[in-house]
Structures are given as structure tokens and as C-alpha cells.
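Morning run. Coffee first, then this:
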Amino acid sequence: MSSRSSAALPNGARIIVLDSNPILVSVSGVLRMEGYRVFQAYDGQAAVELCAQLPDITLLILNTHVDGLNSVALIAGVRARHPALSILHIDTHRHAGLPSDIPTLTEPFTAAELIDCVRTLTSSQPDAPLRPAAASLSGAA
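And here it is:
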């Protein structure tokens, strides 16, 4: 049973976790136990595709070591469709090249620290998850 109070429910947040490493697989489990709707992507391209296909993404969680794409390219691709999407970077340290608005949760961390960080990032629009941008960079209608 979760320790969350009814005032701290995740408000239907939809989170994509790029879980190509064991730490992020654990992150998915912790967030599901807290009531978040978690979708797992096995590599960078799958994360981009999930962000394109799912209508109401609230948060993307990734680390620097992304299979299939580098993390900076992945972020650029996702933000082309979801310009205001919250993104959480998890790693042992902050890496150069990450946009300044993306926080880094430094390993090791506790489940409580993860939940607090996710709650903060998903609470900016608690009743209205982000919608994809109307136009993509490819110019397709």
C-alpha cells in the first residue's frame, strides 16, 4: 500500500520512462506503485514514437546513455512535438549539453526523492496534461 495522501494523487499524469538501464526500470515500478500511468520505452527511437502517439504526455524521464539516439537529439526530437514537455534527467551527474530547464536527479537517490521530483514536475499543470504541438518540424499536416 502506498504512503501517499489523497491530496497528493498524481492527477492522471502520463509518464514515459526510457528504461534502457536497470535504474530506470526501478523508476517505472516506483512510479506505478504511486499511481502514475507509466509507459516504458526500450530505446531513444521508441521514446520519440511514444511521445508522438500518446496524446497527453506529462513527463519524460531519461538518462544520458540512450540506446539509439544521444540524449540531446532525443530531447530535441521530443520537444519538436511537445515544446513544453517536462523532462527529468537521471544520472550520476549532470551532463553538458542538456537544456537548462531539465533538472537532473543525481544517483543514488531514494524513492521519496524521486516521487518528490516527479510530483513537482507534473504539478505545473495538474488538470491538463500537455498536448502535442499542432505542427511538426517535418512540415507534415
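The beta strands are 14-18, 37-41, 59-62, 86-91, 104-106. Good start to the day.
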